[in-house]
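Input (NAD(P)-dependent oxidoreductase):
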Amino acid sequence: MKPVIYSFTNFKPDQVAQLQDSAPQFEIVLAQDSPLIPQDRLLGVIGWKKELSQTLLAAPHLKWIQSISAGVDYLPWSEINSRHILVSNGSGIHAQVITEHVLAIILSYERGLFGYARAQREHQWLTNEFEPDDVAGKSLLIFGAGHIGQRLAQQATALGLHVSGVNTRGEARPNFEAMYTLSTVTSAIASFDFVVNIMPLTAATTGYFNQAFFSQMAPRAVFINVGRGPSVVINDLAVALQAGQLSFASADVFETEPLPSSSQLWDLPNFLITPHIAGQVPHFRQKLFAIVQPNLASFAATGQLSVNQVDPRQGY
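Output:
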């Protein structure tokens, strides 16, 4: 009996055939065809079900986890590290759609579209209420300069925005005019019109966007979170919006999802809620396949991964 690579993503038959050709010594099994996980033969898993963590980790020969998302903070890292299980993520799959999501918010805000949408619901013709502006010449600060951050920087620059970024070491990246670290960016926060979080969740980024952070933002500024929910102290953001410490905010991710119907955020006129949809990707299986196939071929040949291997020390 061959070792099994078990996939929670239901690849098309031709994709399964290509995966099988890449690793003939393994058996590719789809969850839709075999809901019972073959623990005794499980070598690798594509995707992860949190509710099945104990079942998956009970597989004694598990050596590789391929996440379908860029963030991997939900994985059981203590056991993964103790067993030296390789992990790769889906970084890059969501770069274009999240870029478009963020730019849609920025453009809609500058053109006053959120206000006009409210006015339409109230049957009001407001010609001078929202003062539509353009984005050219405005400044954007992106926390996280990986695949998504770099794509956003590229396309925001094309719109005339001045883009700066934050990464672990403050290393230069294309299309960023300046780079900071989490510790050096503090003095510059007030100078930006738009602040976007795309960082992975780590010990350093958990709760980073809090009352102290929002108090440093300019009253005209906009905050957008498409990173991880626990990076933002959401009650602090609500208080900052109500106090006018920033003018508008949007979040696609929250520490508790779905967002409770009792949350005060639903009723804030200067806050946009989207239900964790910024990363929804058309043709997702094909884009994931472009990561899985070379990783599977490499894993079969050498026991190593070739694309998007996660550094367990950094969590991304």
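The chain has two domains: 4-92+282-302, 95-273.
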